[in-house]
Amino acid sequence: MRPFAALRGKLPALTSLRWKIAALAAATACLVALAVGVLVHLWTARDIRGRAEARAFNSVYSAMDTYHRTGTLADGAALDPPDLPASLRHPADGNRHTAYDGSVHDNVGPSFWAAQRVGGPGSAVLAVEINMSPELYDLRRLDATMAVASLASVAAAVPLAVYGAGLVGRRLRRVSETAVRISAGDLDARTGPTRGRDEVADIGVAVDLMADSLGRRLRGERRFTADVAHELRTPVGGLLAAVDLLPDGETEDLIRGRVRDLRGLVEDLLEISRLDAGAELPAPVPVPLGAVVREAVARTGLDTAVRVVETRQTVETDPRRLERIVGNLVVNAHRHGGAPVEVTVEGRTVVVRDHGPGFPTDLLRDGPRRFHTGARERGTGHGLGLTIAFGQARVLGAEVTLRNAPDGGAVATLRLPGPQVPGA
């Protein structure tokens, strides 16, 4: 089992934290620019209408004064103009009134009108029209300018956001890489000192503290396992020598079998302690894969069918460790599975299959655990066979995967690394 195997390089780049933060910054900048643009547009348009209304109101007052003094029309005033809005055709006597006209004629308009009767009831209406076209044209130019400025701001904000998010992303990636190394068994991996005093730095410190605690516990466990196995070797050897002195009989055979089982357990514990300590080194040589697998299966003494697709297939690996892995997988299949047990060799892959109840769910999910044999229906044992197989596979750079066949039975697959070496 390889935890976090798809942590990096498996997701599209656009789903990374950097681009999410950049997209959020761009969206925020766009919303701010839109809000500011709308507010400025509404405020300016309201100001234009207010100033146009005031000009119209004052202009009709000035025109009325001129008309009464000189009898002439000034400031663009007109009597009963045909375009005068209907709401201003009958203003109250002596009162000035204004109205907005949104129509556009010959590029003139929208406009604000102001009107007042020149005399008593039924007299003519003096009106002044204030054209707002120039101001509205300036408003459109202001909108365009703000749009360009907003786009420029977004274009400047996004790279800054990408850069800033990249700094955070690199720090988080460093922490995640450390966590992956720790999960893979590198107990000396540390994030190390990080800049700043933010949440990312806190995560890095927490991961390092977790690694320190985990390392102490695992090293203590491994040291205890190695010490126990080493101390048991001498008394177990003495027991074997003492058993040889017993007279032949059923009792002697029973004791001899139990002592041999105990010696095998001690040897397995020592092997696991060496694997945990990283003291095992492979000695790869070119070997015929099919022949090595057949020999490993034969050494188990168990009735197992072996099928080799390519008999001349040669690989470069450590044959002793390869035999150990295959032997443990075959013994595990017979002990915890059901007959028939079949071994297939194809390319650099060795598949061991039984026809029993299959692997337990927790074994498929969590991988093998020492002294844990899974479900009761898969037999008994001390649960070290698969643990040793996985450990020796890591030494070879190989991979062991476990699954259940659709039609029943457990399937263990060993994939050896490296290019194939052509056979002679």
UniProtKB/TrEMBL annotation:
Reaction equations catalysed: ATP + protein L-histidine = ADP + protein N-phospho-L-histidine
Record keywords, A-Z: Kinase, Membrane, Phosphoprotein, Transferase, Transmembrane, Transmembrane helix, Two-component regulatory system
Chain ranges passing through the membrane: 21-43, 144-168
Ranges where the Histidine kinase domain occurs: 227-420
CDD domains given in the database record: HAMP, HisKA
Boundaries of every HAMP domain copy: 166-219
Record-listed E.C. numbers: 2.7.13.3
Cell location: Cell membrane
InterPro entries recorded: HAMP_dom, HATPase_C_sf, HATPase_dom, His_kinase_dom, HisK_dim/P_dom, HisK_dim/P_sf, TCS_sensor_his_kinase
Keyword Cell membrane belongs to the record: no
Keyword Repeat assigned: no
GO molecular function: kinase activity
PANTHER family per record: SENSOR HISTIDINE KINASE TRCS, SENSOR HISTIDINE KINASE YKOH
Full protein name: histidine kinase
